[in-house]
Amino acid sequence: DGGITQSPKYLFRKEGQNVTLSCEQNLNHDAMYWYRQDPGQGLRLIYYSQIVNDFQKGDIAEGYSVSREKKESFPLTVTSAQKNPTAFYLCASSPPGGLVLAYNEQFFGPGTRLTVL
Amino acid sequence: KNQVEQSPQSLIILEGKNCTLQCNYTVSPFSNLRWYKQDTGRGPVSLTIMTFSENTKSNGRYTATLDADTKQSSLHITASQLSDSASYICVVSPGGSYIPTFGRGTSLIVHP
Questions:
Q1: Which residue of B has its CA nearest to A94?
Q2: Percent over 90 (pLDDT), chain B
Q3: pLDDT tens digit string along A76-94?
Q4: Choosing a second label site near A50 at 20 to 30 A (CA), which of A19, B76, B84, B98?
Q5: Which residue of chain B is at minimal alpha-carbon distance from A36?
């Protein structure tokens, strides 16, 4: 059963703590992405990775970090430097040839809701 | 700057009625336009995807149109059902880039 999984579904963090959100895909996709979604706003890009061991900052990377050691996995760490981390976090992936294929599209995971206590 | 604007921001309709959601974009160069449905607390799910050469595409009761000249798209929902209550997001991908531009979405509520 192919797809993207995110865990946990709900996550609570105390101020000053780092937390890591998991994202795994078995779609054999090269590119992976992390987005943040706040009420009434569109998805905002945090980080993305086109290939293993390479990633780029998105529009709101401050206070976040990522790694891409395996093609299937793209974990996101929300650090204590992120002042307003409460949000819904979405992971996505897209197939190979993203720069070329006109039909390239992103597939999303179910999301993780992070709440700061 | 690439932008995607959606209207209306929210919409309430009665079950069984039709509705149309709008999307205007300024993304250039254009590669494809997608409509996603996002249920509350879940990830977006793709409904349709169109390239510049396509001006209409259907997925069941959902029909998307694209006018690449005016840079406008619409999503028409026919015979709405309670399960259509969700946020509908328009996403435009530029050519030569991995990074799409997202609209803020239209929140649709279908009442019985």
A1: B98
A2: 82
A3: 999 988 889 999 999 999 8
A4: A19
A5: B43
